[in-house]
Amino acid sequence: MNIQNMADSQINAPLLELESMIGFGGQVPSGLKVHPDKQHLIYPVGCTVVIEDIGSKKQEFLSGHTNSISCIAVSKSGRYVASGQVTHSGFKADIIIWDFQTRSMYCKLTLHHNNVEALSFSPNDQYLVSLGGQDDGSVVVWSIARKDAICGSPAQVMSAGLTHTVCYSNTSENIFVTGGSGTLRVWELDVEHRKIRPTEVQMGQLKRVIRCIEMAEDDSFFYCGTSTGDIVAVNMTSKFFQAQGPKELFSQGVTALTLLANGELLVGTGDGTVAVVKDKDSTPQTTTPLAHPE
């Protein structure tokens, strides 16, 4: 076979299809999601989004990113999944919105430089808000129907550090919260004038690096997990720091929060511990280290 024939055969060769994947790195913050149908897990591995049936363990794969996935979000209806990636210095990083039902790409959004830090859907699937990473520093609101950006703004003041996380309101399409190193802001979206306006949360003398945010079902409060290892509660109406706890700090910080139906907080920490914390409690109710995978 001559060189030309070899080249032709390589071009016409069928592509290998990914059949299954073993392992979960856990390096992506809040990177393990349960779909609202309670039947599927969604998580990134490398540049692929994995959809795994909880019962049968069957896996499906969403491929389209050109580099490692850095964040992931699922809409409250379950219709959409969004994933953001890192890229090389000087290049723009993609966000992909996937149609969960058809397991296909709905649209690709490209604006942030180098890295997409975090993503969150509005409660009725109208908007997606995204955070850029250290070399970008912006927050952008996207229209899902129009598949383009509505508006953007610097995510924090110049004196603050990087903004790490974003959480959308549960009741309003126009309110979301961002937090990070020395910054915690409540944003209001003005679609008509294509602007987002931040209000700084008044934290008094408390200085924290916010790693995750969880919103109360009625938006009366939101809870912030910190790198210090405590949880900060903020009154949404007044935008004032309201409470802090537990007294016994979690080792290596609070990295994940989920508000349970009974009002308790399920807490994930940097040392692999899972705990349940009662509101206004001084100590965790239960603390369970996670088992390492075989």
Provide keyphrases for this structure.
four-stranded antiparallel sheet, globular, 24 strands, 294 residues, 1 helix, disordered C terminus, mainly beta
Number of helices: 1
Strand content: over 45%
**Mind telling me the C-alpha Rg?**
20 Å
- The residue-averaged pLDDT reads 88
Largest sheet: 4 strands, antiparallel
Secondary-structure element order, N to C:
HEEEEEEEEEEEEEEEEEEEEEEEE
The helix content, as a percent range, equals under 10%
The tally of strands reads 24
Distance between the termini: 47 Å
Structural class: mainly beta
Overall morphology: globular
Q: Spans of 5+ residues with little confidence (pLDDT < 50)?
A: 281-294
What order do the strands of the largest sheet run in, or round the barrel if closed? 1-2-3-4
Structure, explained:
By secondary structure, the chain is mainly beta. About 5% of the residues lie in helices and about 50% in strands. The chain has one helix and 24 strands. The chain has one helix at about 5-10; strands at about 35, 40-45, 50-55, 60-65, 70-75, 80-85, 90-100, 105-115, 115-120, 125-130, 140-145, 150-155, 165-170, 175-180, 185-190, 195-200, 210-215, 220-225, 230-235, 240-245, 255-260, 265-270, 275, 285-290. It has a four-stranded antiparallel β-sheet, with no helix packed on it. A four-stranded antiparallel β-sheet has the order 5-6-7-8, with no helix packed on it. A hairpin with a 4-residue loop joins strand 18 and strand 19. The radius of gyration is 20 Å and the shape is globular. The protein starts with a helix and ends in a 5-residue tail after the last strand.
